[in-house]
Design brief:
Layout: H1 2-10, H2 20-37, H3 41-64, H4 78-102, H5 122-158, H6 172-184, H7 191-208, H8 211-231
Helix pairs in contact: 2-3, 2-5, 3-5, 4-7, 4-8, 5-6, 5-8, 6-7, 7-8
Amino acid sequence: MTEGRERTREQGGGFGEGWLPYLAPMLLFGLLVELGSHASGATQGALLALRVALPGAALLFFWRRGAYPELAGSPPGGVGGALADVGMGLGIAGLWVVPYLIWSELPRGEPFDPALFGESRRGLVLGLRLMGFALVTPFMEELFVRSFLVRVLDAWRAGEDFRRLPVAQFTRLSFAGTIAWFTLSHAPWEWWVALPTGVLFNLWLARRGHLGATVRAHAVTNAAIWVLVVFGPIALWEFL
């Protein structure tokens, strides 16, 4: 029985099969964001905590059952590759933030309120936001967009099971389709910078050949933006 279960896991079976491991964290996150948009005060703060906990728990649940073979092993390149991922992440963070430091008239969204639990608990709220922003979101979004969606688009056209297609390979359809999704999944005022970000992450995945590299770069991007927002000289709370 154990050997059969391990063999199924290696082949991507069991909980690793199908769309659920990729869709469930995103659906939970989207539902909580929508609920949060209609809440205020402590309720909004509680939903922020759930926005970290529930998608994160779903990711861990499926990962422990072998649902994400594309994250197995380490990205190539060792320390040099890791430093390159960090550099890419920092560069994309600059792409997002620097224009707003230069041109204050650029359109912006609603600012994030770190006092959701009261002024005395700003640190707690900011810590929760950092966990969601730099830990949960990179895994959730990269697994969905640049592993699942890329392969589903190409498998749908070819009439194949998406799990049989390799990660980090694009056709014109999947390259353009994932950029369109990534762009439109952000707020309209962010589209102009989300589009080139999607292009850069796709190219980086194709270059590095391992989804872990784009997760790492994405995490660095979000963590750097968090640091710039919280400790930077100009208030950019709309980025959180």
